[in-house]
């Protein structure tokens, strides 16, 4: 449920459903509130219209009961006791109001509550009166031959409204599941159609990679709001591409330019070491300089490889190698260390893997070197390798001094080292794991780093294995 609350698609979908239900509830409330007034208005209009019809008809032959039947039919009221019609003969040149009508004494006791003009029919006077302790909508029509007063009980309006609402509620209960289902389907298709541009943009953004920043998000046919967003994003990509190319070119050019002078310096220093007196102070100093030149050469080589990886120019010469043999050789080298490090674990036999031999060797050397350098006295290295579901797994674990959570979170950052002060207690450049991860990515694989209680470090290499390894297992 928490995941849905973070989904813009789900938010739009549920907003559509909530809006539909809210409009439905509001519709019901408004019908209850406004419907009664509209129903009364319809009854009054029908009552006025029958009066206008009477005005145009000869009424001398019609009795009050006949007029009542016509009124009942016109207004469509089923109960005759909710309608009254009174008739009388008018006197010439006399004005009759609702309180001064020539009817029975009982009708003379009526009380006019509201008297309203009716603009569409000025010749018909209407009012709301009390008669027989009930409220009635009354109309008065005076023709040359008759005075007609028609009464319609106001309770008839309420009763008709209640009947209408009851029928509506029963009908809604029957059709509501279908309506809700249609609303959900409509919400699904409307949401999908509305958010389709976002899906297209999302797919284009996935194609953007740090190794190829030339990709641009197309905006042809998109709405104006999305076109503006895409233009801003494309402009940002263009700026990133320029900056990235400049930085990558600088790293690559600098590494290339440094390799030659470093090689020359190394040659001169080695010659000077050979010509100096063995064990002399000058020879010791020259050896220290030689070590630093080696370190600079290693950094230069790694920076060159990283720059090539960043630019998507890391060239791999694939061949199938026996990973089991490579790992066995590295494990054997552990026995020549002083003091030797205990190795354990299980390496599956004949693990064939298509890779660049040099880069894979560098990957494994870096991982084993780190496991040795950052180990503890009388420590151990657990090396396990196997294949499962067409994937190669190589896992190295070793104990280490306590490392911080901050270092674990940025272990693959360049120049990031376990000794945060870079005090050189442990030789290294902080580029090894960064390069290892790039080599893993070049094999469509992944390199993970985990620390258990900041005391045991586990590095795992995972990469897909091709089925053509059968060519090599037969050898």
Give an overview of the whole structure:
The C terminus is likely disordered. The protein has three domains: 155 residues, Beta-Lactamase (2-Layer Sandwich), CATH 3.30.450; 87 residues, Signal transduction histidine kinase, dimerisation/phosphotransfer (DHp) domain (Helix Hairpins); 156 residues, Heat Shock Protein 90 (2-Layer Sandwich). α2 runs antiparallel to α3. The strands form three sheets. It has a five-stranded antiparallel sheet. A five-stranded mixed sheet has the order 7-9-10-12-11. A hairpin with a 3-residue loop joins β9 and β10. It contains 13 helices and twelve strands. The protein is an alpha+beta fold and 475 residues long. The longest helix has 52 residues. Helices cover 53% and strands 17% of the residues.
Structural class: alpha+beta
Reading off the top of the CATH hierarchy, the class of the largest domain is best stated as Alpha Beta
User: Strand sequence of the main sheet, in spatial order?
Assistant: 1-5-4-3-2
Shape: rod-shaped
* CATH overall fold name of the largest domain: Heat Shock Protein 90
Number of strands: 12
Mean pLDDT reading: 77
The percentage helix is 40-55%
Order of helices and strands: HHHEHEEEEHHHHEHEEHEEHHEEH
Uncertain stretches: 420-425, 469-475
End-to-end C-alpha gap: 55 Å
Count of all domains: 3
Gyration radius (Cα, Å) is 47 Å
